[in-house]
Write a structure and sequence with these properties.
The structure is a single chain. This protein is of the alpha/beta class. The chain has one domain: Purple Acid Phosphatase, chain A, domain 2, CATH 3.60.21.10. Helices cover about 20% and strands about 30% of the residues. It has six helices and 13 strands. It has helices spanning about 45-60, 95-110, 120-130, 135-145, 195-200, 255-260, and strands spanning about 10-20, 20-25, 30-35, 65, 115-120, 150, 155-165, 175-180, 210, 215-225, 235-245, 270-275, 285-290. It has a seven-stranded mixed beta sheet with strand order 1-2-7-8-9-11-10, with helices on one face. Helix 2 (about 95-110) packs parallel to helix 4. The longest helix is centred in the first third of the chain and has 14 residues, at about 45-60. The chain starts with 11 loop residues before the first strand and ends with a strand.
Amino acid sequence: MTPTNPKKSCGITIKPTGRNSHLIDYDKGQEFLFISDVHFDATKCDRDLLDKHLRQAKDKGAAVLVFGDWFDLMQGKWDPRGTYSDLRPEYKSINYLDCVIDDTIEYLSNYKDVIKFLGRGNHETNIEKRMHTSPLDRVAAVLRERGGDVHVGGYAGWLLAGERRSGNKLTRTRTKIHYHHGYGGNAPRSKGVLRVDLDQMQFPDAQILLRGHTHQKWYVPITVDRVNSYGNTYQETTHHVQMGSYKLLGDRFAGWAVEKGFNTPRLGGWWATPKRHHKEEIAQWTITEAS
């Protein structure tokens, strides 16, 4: 018997075109889940919420794109941010780093059909610099061996997304997505919103700008006026998305985030759905909160 609500397949392919640029081709009706700052191996990672969103993505056939700090990896003896009490019991081993990577592989193998992109964050680049290994590349290699199609990106870069047409033709105009894991503090007063105008000016070609790192979560759409080469004016919306986190702050007893005075984070990521009108080349995107 055919199930009432059959699961959808994830209809995207990704092709790298450079060290920090990728082409994304997707089927009509494809959905995306943008997340960052999961901190999967941290004791304060809200794995229940993460499971909820990844299961929803799997049911929808939504492509999951992670933009940095999938890992926490702060409990090695080399890291001044670490505290032994924040080490999960299953990782209390001489090969701590391998335990976390292996656990991530087993966890993400359940979602290998929808996990499509893993970008670097400061927690991954910290391991690369100190330990001379790339945990994301190690995870991605095994997931590909198990039938997945996951790509590893940089700390910042471009994704150019276009809808497949009938006959497997591609749209001539792609949505330009700029991602950057983020930098600096978590801006306790402005929440980082003051960067919107700067990003709008620095990356004028981007229709979507994705940011992480600060564990803030907000969405600011900016509508701008444009003119084409024929002198026709039109309006276009640029989507500025601060992606949030999956790491709880806890009871503020002690720890790195408490000592630095970080705000209580808003958890979860963002669903993104492109829809192209038959008379338009460029897709219009709807951004909604995953909570």
